[in-house]
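Exercise 7b. Backbone tokens:
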């Protein structure tokens, strides 16, 4: 799943995010969602979240077990 729909991104879910400084390289960071920062129901570049470790980025992939 991609992270463009806010309804798919919920706190506690494992995701891959791209941080602002990594947007050019596309480097992804894995983590668990703590807070959802995007208010709109969808976003073409991914929903912005804060991870449990404090990292802020846009969701590029939702990890399903």
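Sequence design result:
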């Amino acid at each position: 799943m991609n992270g463009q729909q806010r309804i798919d991104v919920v706190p506690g879910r494992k995701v891959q995010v791209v941080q602002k400084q990594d947007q050019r390289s596309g480097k992804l960071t894995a983590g668990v969602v703590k807070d959802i920062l995007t208010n709109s129901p969808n976003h073409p570049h991914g929903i912005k979240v804060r991870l449990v470790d404090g990292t802020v980025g846009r969701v590029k992939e939702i990890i399903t077990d």
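Instructor comment: Residues 4 and 44 are 6 Å apart (CA to CA). The domain at 6-62 is CATH 2.30.30 (SH3 type barrels.).
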